Hints:
Layout: E1 4-15, H1 54-66, E2 70-71, E3 74-75, E4 78-81, E5 91-94, E6 101-110, E7 113-126, E8 130-133, E9 144-147, E10 154-160, H2 167-184, E11 196-206, E12 216-219, H3 224-243, E13 251-256, E14 261-267, E15 276-277, E16 284-285, H4 288-296, H5 302-313, H6 317-323, H7 327-339, H8 343-360, H9 372-384, H10 389-402, H11 406-413, H12 421-434, H13 436-443, H14 448-460, H15 467-480
Parallel strand pairs: 12-13
Antiparallel strand pairs: 1-10, 1-11, 2-6, 3-16, 4-5, 4-15, 6-7, 7-10, 8-9, 11-12, 13-14
Helix pairs in contact: 2-3, 5-6, 6-8, 7-8, 7-9, 9-10, 12-14, 12-15, 13-14, 14-15
Family: Belongs to the GatB/GatE family. GatB subfamily.
Pfam families: GatB_N, GatB_Yqey
EC number: 6.3.5.-
Amino acid sequence: MSTYEAVIGLEVHVELKTQSKLFCGCSTEFGKEPNTQVCPVCLGLPGSAGVLNKKVVELATKAGLALNCEIGTHTWFDRKNYYYPDLPKGYQVSQVFRPIAYKGYLDIEVEDQQMRINITRAHIEEDPGKLVHSGASITTSHSSSADYNRSGIPLVEIVSEPEIRSGEEAKVYLEKLKAILEYTGVSDVKMEQGSLRCDANVSIRPVGTTTLGTKTEIKNMNSFRAVQRAIEYEVERQIAVVQDGEAIIQETRGWDENKGITLSMRNKENPDYRCFIDAELTHIKLTPEWIEGVKASLPELPDARQKRLVEEYGLPAYDAAVITSSLDLAEFFDATLDQFPDAKLISNWIMGELLRLLNAQNLELSEAKVTPDRLAKLLALIKKGTISNKIGKEVFELMFKEGKEPEQIVEEKGLVQISDEGQLTEILTEIIAKNPKSVEDFQSGKEQAIGFLVGQVMKATKGQANPGAVNGMLREMLTKK
């Protein structure tokens, strides 16, 4: 890799969050029976005519503004002609010549290095249908069926400049892009449902040169991690091909998640889509006032929110970046902070306990039984000394599993922290008697011995003793001896 560099451009298809399709009233709801959400318009039947969904234009404009794009005041739709079973009209309605948004950018940080990835364009287009393969993928199937429920669903395709240089950069770019689109409400960006899909154009060239190499397009990547892995594999594959004295073929390749490799799907040498303006569809003319109105409706975006958490609440930049990485997480944090005013402690519990359990059980935050209200109540119990921090973690796991209030769990399990001086004195006296060597070590100046004795007390009380009170009382009792 030292003699070659990767040149990567991403094409991200984002399903817009509308209730109906681009040119008809058919529902966009996910998961319905095949071919139950179709009509003559989205099936492309002869004589059918559609009407542009105004909400699509608003959401596409909002996406463009959030990505620092210029907005086209006069745009139109074009026909991109190609033949494939999932495209009933024989052409796709898109914006080839005049996109609604262009010349944008996205700033990302990779390994403490700031970089800007320029965005060529963001244009509106209709989704084709979906092929349902009999096997695990198209390359291993003996037949395919066509489901046209998705046909005509409105998309924004966001095309980056070929300025990405690694799979890691691609992953970070996609994570940032997803967060922005989620914050704006443009899309639900559910990759598992196809609301966000990414194709990667990958090529290599000798370091120090500027001429672009022959590219391949990778498809079928269903996670950001898959995008990263597919790009890393493809770069290595292309380097090996060139070093063997062979030429890279311009083609579409599919990502096989199980094997961890890309596989050739079809040749894509000089595709000619014979694009031309769709004269049957209305042009889109946007006034500066309308664009400003959409701009004014933009919410606080991830970068601004991250900056606010650092400046207003003193969170470390890393904590703020994690908290603002998704809208759900940021809103969970804010809702908890409204009830328990300790931003750093809240972020510690979200990043430590909450995200750990979500990842371990492969759950979304919306599926968690721990609510901001319950987390705030738990932290209040710890702060008051009702339970220890260690017991708090046990309570949190039970809250996560059972969805009960923290006070209820503490009462049912008998987990109230032991702070009574008389009760603690009895326990400490017993521990001191059982550990004369540690007592002698502490009294001879070995400070670490007190930690061992505190640990023995916590073990004897199953973590319910107040560690602060234990430490102070032990020191007092041992100093008197």
